[in-house]
Amino acid sequence: MLRRSFLGTTAALLAVGCVPAEDPSTPRVSAGGTSLVLGSRPRVVGPSGASLEIEAARHLVVRFDADGSVTATMGGLGTEVGALNGPAQVGFAPNGDAWVLDRGNGRVQRFDPAGFPVAVLEAPDATALAIGADGTLALGEATRGQVRIVGEDGSLVRVVELGAVPRDVAWAPDGQLVVLTYAGGLVRSGPRTFDTLLSPGSLAFPLGVAVADDGRIFVAEAGAFALRVLAADGSTIEAVRSVLDDGRLAQPVQVSAHGSVALVTMVPGPREA
């Protein structure tokens, strides 16, 4: 059980279950006012309340309805359409279909609500995935140092040249793209704009990024054992850290946003000093 969360030296009790993930409709609140839900598996919640969870060890993606009941299981290790090999990220299309970054197979697959594959986009260089409100896909391509933005049919919309290696990508409510880099930087890109929010080295081994409905940016800052919460301009609001009952720090490794709530995937780290 995760039991306390703190910002700097200010501590606050926070009773949070790690497995399974908590109900996002009843989030916990950090000392600095951030609503968050902690879990041990990557999780994304759609507008209808349906959710997707990745079971990496079994190469599966499990779909739940708003009541928490399993409605579909997608994948299983393989290369054929519908099978998965190292599902890395998931997200919802506007109609409720699920997109899965099938990283080991170099593609992105789309599944209907019943779990049947309905589309496959070849994406051999994709290492990160985000789906916009209009269904547009952003594919971070680490080996190319860019983000490729494509329509639901795979047609190219534009390419964002970063001059850096993208770690993760997320769409902001205003339609701009937020990109987290391996070097610990953060940039924001629109069709005609490109802004550096945080320069390289600003973040300690960041692994994931998400943007809340109110524009706040959540970063899973694994090297700092914290969920870093940023304003839209990149300034820090707070850094939320959590400790397990056995004294080990909980290390955030992935994050998504559901409304204004941060859904944080965490693993046990070293013991708190």
Descriptive notes:
Helix content is 0%, strand content 55%. It is built from no helices and 26 strands. It has strands at residues 2-7, 10-16, 28-29, 35-39, 43-45, 51-55, 60-64, 70-75, 87-92, 98-102, 107-111, 117-122, 126-131, 137-141, 146-150, 156-161, 166-171, 177-181, 186-189, 194-198, 206-211, 217-221, 226-230, 236-244, 248-258, 261-271. β19 (186-189) and β20 (194-198) form a beta hairpin. The protein is globular, with a radius of gyration of 18 Å. The two termini are 19 Å apart. Residues 1-20 have low confidence and may be disordered.
Features:
mainly beta; 4-stranded mixed beta sheet; single chain
- Helical fraction equals under 10%
Strand coverage percent: over 45%
User: Count of DSSP E strands?
Assistant: 26
Shape descriptor: globular
Number of helices: 0
Low-confidence sequence ranges = 1-20
Strand order of the largest sheet: 2-1-24-23-22-21
Alpha-carbon Rg, integer: 18 Å
Mean pLDDT equals 89
Largest sheet: 6 strands, antiparallel
In whole angstroms, the N-to-C terminal distance is: 19 Å
H-E order: EEEEEEEEEEEEEEEEEEEEEEEEEE
Question: What class would the helix/strand composition place it in?
Answer: mainly beta
Give the helices and strands, then pairings.
Blueprint lengths: L1 E6 L2 E7 L11 E2 L5 E5 L3 E3 L5 E5 L4 E5 L5 E6 L11 E6 L5 E5 L4 E5 L5 E6 L3 E6 L5 E5 L4 E5 L5 E6 L4 E6 L5 E5 L4 E4 L4 E5 L7 E6 L5 E5 L4 E5 L5 E9 L3 E11 L2 E11 L2
Parallel strand pairs: 4-26
Antiparallel strand pairs: 1-2, 1-24, 3-4, 5-6, 6-7, 7-8, 9-10, 10-11, 11-12, 13-14, 14-15, 15-16, 17-18, 18-19, 19-20, 21-22, 22-23, 23-24, 25-26
